[in-house]
């Protein structure tokens, strides 16, 4: 599924709630999910880990919807087959 | 671009670094980027905001690569045209 299709799906499912909740509270949900992902990294359950990755990208798409950002367009503007810092593929940054 | 194609692109660009850095440090980069996204939400620059959204999904894909998780598969397993909690579209959860 394209990133933009996933963002549209999240809009159909959740925008009525996301928009009412607002940008700051939606961001707080995202940070909670990132924390849960961090905890799941130490678990032995691949299923739990998959679910937490899913939640983070879902809340990121929800936040992009509330902020009026096209996540796929924004992503490919910065990461288009090369590192945005060294402009090479693979990245050869030295830091 | 498909979510899986983006994850593959991140692998080509960064896996040699991500894998050496390891899961915990890659997760820490993700949390730093989420914090920067939070700061960018209050800025007036759409360009800056787009770049921060791009960074978060990029680091999420990098982390998925290190963790051996297929981000698209994991996402569609949980969010397939319906809310995973109430099983409806749009979501009708009451909490």
Summarize this entry quickly.
Chain A is mainly alpha-helical. Chain A has four helices and no strands.
Explain what you see:
The structure is a homodimer of 95-residue chains. The N and C termini of chain A lie far apart (34 Å). Helix content of chain A is 71%, strand content 0%. Chain A is mostly helical and 95 residues long. In chain A, helix 1 (3-21) crosses helix 3 and helix 2 runs antiparallel to helix 3. Chain A is built from 4 helices and no strands. At the A-B interface, helix 1, helix 2, helix 3 and helix 4 of A face helix 1, helix 2, helix 3 and helix 4 of B.
Of all chain pairs, the largest interface belongs to: A-B, 52 and 52 residues
**Main sheet attributes: strand count, strand direction, barrel closure of chain A:** none
Number of helices of chain A: 4
Low-confidence stretches of chain A: none
Assembly form of the protein:
homodimer
- Quickly give the structural class of chain A: mainly alpha
Which percent band covers the strand fraction of chain A?
under 5%
Question: How far is it from the N-terminal to the C-terminal residue of chain A, by CA?
Answer: 34 Å
Secondary-structure element string of chain A: HHHH
Question: Which range best describes the helical content of chain A: under 10%, 10-25%, 25-40%, 40-55%, 55-70% or over 70%?
Answer: over 70%
The rough form of chain A would be described as globular
What is the C-alpha radius of gyration of chain A, as a whole number of Å? 16 Å
Q: Work out the number of β strands of chain A.
A: 0
Task: Estimate the mean pLDDT confidence of chain A.
Answer: 95
């Amino acid at each position: 599924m394209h990133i933009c299709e996933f963002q549209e799906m999240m809009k159909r499912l959740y925008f009525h709630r996301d928009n009412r909740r607002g940008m700051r509270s939606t961001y707080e949900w995202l940070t909670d999910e990132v924390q849960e992902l961090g905890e799941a990294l130490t678990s032995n359950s691949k299923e739990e880990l998959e679910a937490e990755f899913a939640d983070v990208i879902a809340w990121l798409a929800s936040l992009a919807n509330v902020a009026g950002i096209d996540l796929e367009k924004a992503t490919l503007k910065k990461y288009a087959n090369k590192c945005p810092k060294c402009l090479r593929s693979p990245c050869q940054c030295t830091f």
